[in-house]
Amino acid sequence: MDKLALRVAMFTVGMHFVFPRLADAFGVHLSQLLVLGLCLPAVMLGSMSFWRVASFGRSWPVVLCVAVAWIGLAYGAGRTNNRGLLNVAYVTSTLPIAALIVERRCWWLCARMFVIGSAFAMCLAIWFEYVLCTSGIVKSLYRFGNLWSADGDLRLANPNLIGNQLALAAVLALVLYLRDGNRRKAHQGTAAPAQFSLAWTLLLSMGCMLTASRGAFVSWAGGMTILVLWGMDSRQSRKARDLVAFCGVMFAVMLFVAAATGFQPWQTLQARLESPEKLLSASGRLPIWISAYELWTADLKTLLFGLGTGLVPETLGAYLGHLTADGVTTLPTDTHNSFVEWGLSFGLLGMVAGVCLLWGVFRRTRLLDRRDGIVYRQAILVCFCTASMTYVTVFYIFFCAAGPLILAMLSDPPPSGPAAVAHRPHRRPELVPAVRHVRTAPPARQPNYGNLIS
To answer: What is the pTM of this model?
Structure first.
């Protein structure tokens, strides 16, 4: 039951960005509350696991940041703050889901379901654009990141959010591929587990590129670079050859498409990367960050406590004078940066809690990866944090999957079976006869596959 709830939650969050297009196609209303409702069983089952299992989600920096988000709701007293309630729900749900992953030791299962859900949503979005676009499948590829409505008048998704999710899913898919190959080596002579295909990584990487999101491309490149350069050792030469071969085939296909249609798949991203004005202003984000700083230092209360949970988009939009088409209603404008959004929401006090959490996360990531002889955690964390610098990933549904996966990978699973006996303290120390130590060559460092992620 627990694993089924986790499967549903991860697959649903992976598919969430295509839900608005599904609702538009079938004429029904699918709100964000539906995604939270499908994640609710995992949250309910994990609420007891949070108290039973000693996980990283119970560390004081994590609990303090979640408490800050709840306290921030008090700032919006007397004002409609539905966005704040959703933000708190997203942040809080990460704790029980992460604890349930740790207790059931199913980090790899959850990562796999998130990857499959993201890939399925990507293919479904491309199909919808193909049906809507009269120019064929090639041109429709460049529209799926916007998810236009059936009448073509309303954009239902943000390419930056979709690109960042696909970037993380691609990094997770490569981690799954590397890990499953090593498990097959460990099971030589026995029934080896099925290997996760490299095609998932290439499919999701292609989707990330087609969104033409520069922030998503940088986050994808950061995670992939760490895995390719330091995630493959000399025993994984076959994997490196597979990766090069697949990339060569994909590059040949892209050249064929460009030659046959005159439509270059990389032209949108290339044009955006070569624009000096947009690069210097981070595609218009730098003026927004400057305005956020001015708004944060406007008075002492905002400087110390911030604007409150969920109130930044409306307040910043009013400060910048952004209005909707009617010329009266304020257009919500987020800061396009999770760290700036957090600081403007909770002020100096929230920043102190956030810095403590970041320091603890990076320090534990480095220590665990060094202990296990891998770089998987570092690649995932670099990808997520880079994406968070260009988009507010913390206060969106995407965080309901990314947050638990990150918290769980930084936790040690509870011992079970022989491991539980090995962890029990002895009542009295055993007497061991003195043995003369013989100097021998140190054994080759092997990845530790007995933990939750390694």
So the answer is: 0.83
Phi, psi values for residue 323, rounded to 5° = -125, 155
Q: What is the pLDDT of residues 302-339, one digit of tens each?
A: 899 988 888 888 888 888 877 666 666 677 888 889 99
Q: Domain extents for the chain?
A: 2-184+194-231+376-414, 237-266
Contact 169/219 with Cβ under 8 angstroms?
no
Token output for 92: 């809080």
Q: 175 with 376: CB under 8 angstroms? A: yes
Spatial distance between the Cα atoms of 370 and 366, rounded to a whole number of angstroms: 6
Matching residue, tokens 């003026």: 287
In angstroms, the CA 302 to CA 350 distance is 11
SS3 of 289-318: HHHHHHHHCCCHHHHHHCCCCCCHHHHHHH
167 touches 383 (CB < 8 A): yes
How crowded is residue 141: how many other Cβ atoms within 10 Å of its Cβ?
Answer: 20
330 SS3 class: strand
Residue whose token pair is 């880079």: 386
What is the SS3 assignment for 233? coil
Q: CA torsion, points 6, 10, 16, 18, in degrees to nearest 10?
A: -120
* All residues at 6 or more sequence positions from 448 whose CB lies less than 8 Å from its CB, including other chains: 371, 372, 373, 374, 454
